[in-house]
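Good morning,

Attaching, inline, the backbone tokens for the sequence recovery test we're adding to the shared suite. The designed sequence is right after.
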């Protein structure tokens, strides 16, 4: 069943209030074991694609969606993430200064805009996504906030557009939890959390599902759909209450059980379909390589040359 909802019926000043979500949490505390041995010395979040680390693509996405306060949950080698974002005078900057390379010094000063604040919290026990988010409860201050997984890269024409759509859906439908989903091939289903839904609707050309059930890594024959949960979420403070009560499975707090309890209690849980956008799990070697290649090919400086070079070698 399809429903059409229009923002045009809402006064413009109300829309602006509704869309004000400016905080995000990035869980980035894992060991990155699938990318060993390089993650022996640097955290997965700092693995480079061209001249930028993985996490910076996510931070740029957040900034483009209107987020200006970001909490990074760090763990193994997390101090290196701090060092990347905190400018200081050191051997490198002195060397650049001595050679008159002031433009490069300014680039280092402006890795993020001045109006954006990044802070950090250590996840001392790796108890999963839910554990990371709960450690950020002090940061969210009972406001709705974005959660963006540090190992999911989304490729879109305008970075941050998907998150902006999710924020609109979240506020317009008064959602307690808004997920992001993507249709995946049948053979991928056992690798992801899968949703079932009761209603399918269109909101300003954004396809939205009212979630009725979540199944974590089901067998193909038991999956309710082929809609897999991707690492972008919008949480209300209600989610934190359910995460605190969720069971621990395999050493990790089960956000899937918490989300299902919310649904069972009648709270609104919606999922935004990411449509034709591509996304990659860069925590795996294959996903990392694919994201590297795609982001290289769309780079406005070297993309065309690399595309021609690939044609030659293939």
């Amino acid at each position: 069943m399809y429903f059409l909802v229009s923002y045009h019926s809402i006064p413009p000043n109300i829309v602006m209030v509704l869309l004000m979500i400016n905080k995000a949490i990035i869980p980035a505390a894992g060991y990155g074991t699938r990318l060993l041995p390089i993650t022996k010395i640097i955290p997965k979040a700092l693995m480079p694609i061209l001249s930028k680390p993985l996490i910076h693509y996510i931070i740029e996405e957040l900034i483009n969606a209107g987020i200006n306060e970001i909490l990074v949950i760090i763990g193994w080698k997390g101090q290196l993430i701090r060092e990347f974002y905190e400018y200081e005078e050191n051997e490198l900057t002195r060397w650049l200064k001595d050679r008159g390379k002031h433009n490069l010094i300014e680039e280092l000063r402006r890795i993020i805009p001045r109006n954006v604040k990044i802070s950090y919290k250590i996840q001392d026990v790796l108890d999963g996504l839910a554990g990371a988010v709960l450690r950020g409860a002090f940061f969210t201050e009972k406001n709705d906030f974005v959660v963006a997984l540090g190992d999911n890269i989304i490729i879109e024409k305008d970075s941050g557009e998907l998150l902006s759509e999710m924020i609109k859906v979240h506020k317009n439908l008064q959602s307690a939890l808004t997920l992001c989903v993507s249709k995946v091939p049948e053979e991928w289903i056992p690798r992801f959390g899968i949703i079932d839904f009761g209603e399918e609707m269109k909101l300003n050309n954004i396809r939205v599902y009212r979630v009725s059930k979540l199944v974590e890594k089901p067998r193909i024959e038991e999956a309710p759909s082929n809609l897999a949960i991707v690492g972008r979420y919008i949480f209300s403070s209600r989610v934190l209450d359910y995460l605190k009560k969720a069971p621990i499975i395999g050493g990790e707090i089960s956000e899937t059980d918490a989300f299902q309890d919310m649904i069972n209690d009648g709270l609104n849980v919606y999922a935004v379909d990411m449509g034709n956008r591509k996304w990659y799990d860069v925590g795996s070697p294959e996903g990392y390589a694919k994201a590297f290649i795609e982001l290289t090919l769309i780079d406005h400086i070297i993309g065309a040359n690399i595309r021609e070079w690939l044609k030659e070698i293939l």
